[in-house]
Amino acid sequence: MSGPARASGGRGPRSVRQGGVYSLHTRGRRALCLGAVCLAGLLMAACMHTVLSEPAGFSGTPRSPAPASPSPPQLTGDPDRPYLLQTQPPYTVALDAGHGGFDTGAEAIIKELEVCEQTVNALYTLLEQDSNYAPVRTRPNGEDRSIKERAQAATDAGASLLLSVHANSDESTGQSHGFECFPTPPGRTYSEESMRFAQCIAQKMGGAGHRLRGENGIRFAYYNGKSKRIVDSTDTKIREQKSFGIVERPYCPAVLVEQCFLTNYSDVENWTGEAGCARAARIYYEAICAYFGTEPLPQGGSV
């Protein structure tokens, strides 16, 4: 007598226990596979982010850290000293190219405006390359600004020093030549610091062979209406008359320089044009370093 009929395929029915074990194993394997796929996706996304975040041609060399930004000015509430001058780098230095826009300044062998902007451009580059400094301009190239606006630009930046670049002229003769600078006069808030900066500049200009006008290349200027009076720095009498606005208005030490005489061929040859302005800019840069006590970068160097 034959036995009971078998199910198709020759396999008997599984018990409930066997089916449960099989189902658990299957779900476990599926969960492991899904986890592995997710992990692989995350790793791939991380790799793609790293590759895309590097510039083209990146060779794997570590990036140099970005230079530190100058700290915002620390306000004091004192109208004579609205913010504290910086005591550590990076120092904010305001650069003022004299005149601007339609105001070209003196016009002789060369225009004063060209000398001012070319010198400030070269000095800005030198300071920008040095991580000890954060240069700011009091006006854009090609544009004019009032003295009040220029001083305000320095104040808004929290400048700890200001240099205003100009050039001289003497239409009565081509013999006048040399360098002179004008710090904030005696009796003002930052007169002593301004004088120290002026001394740094004059010493380096004299050391470079430039003729220093007057006693030592440092003078004070005073206005009585439209009449201007110039005295040597040995005259430390405190006067009520106003000086150049750009050295009176800023809330930091300030010096105005007269780089050379545009009516003198020797001065123009040595202290204007690309080479002459770069030469002067290097002297101003080294004077700024001497004032703050930092080591200047070597010629053509950067950090």
UniProtKB/TrEMBL annotation:
Residues 57-86 are annotated as: Disordered. CDD domains: MurNAc-LAA. Pfam families: Amidase_3 (PF01520). This is N-acetylmuramoyl-L-alanine amidase. GO terms for molecular function: N-acetylmuramoyl-L-alanine amidase activity. Signal peptide: none annotated. The keyword Transmembrane helix does not apply. SUPFAM superfamilies: Zn-dependent exopeptidases. Residues 64-73 have a biased composition (Pro residues). It comes from Ruthenibacterium lactatiformans. Keywords: Hydrolase. GO terms for biological process: peptidoglycan catabolic process. The lineage of its organism: Bacteria, Bacillati, Bacillota, Clostridia, Eubacteriales. InterPro entries: MurNAc-LAA_cat, N-acetylmuramoyl_amidase_3. The keyword Signal does not apply. It comes from the Bacteria. Residues 151-289 form the MurNAc-LAA domain. GO terms for cellular component: outer membrane-bounded periplasmic space.
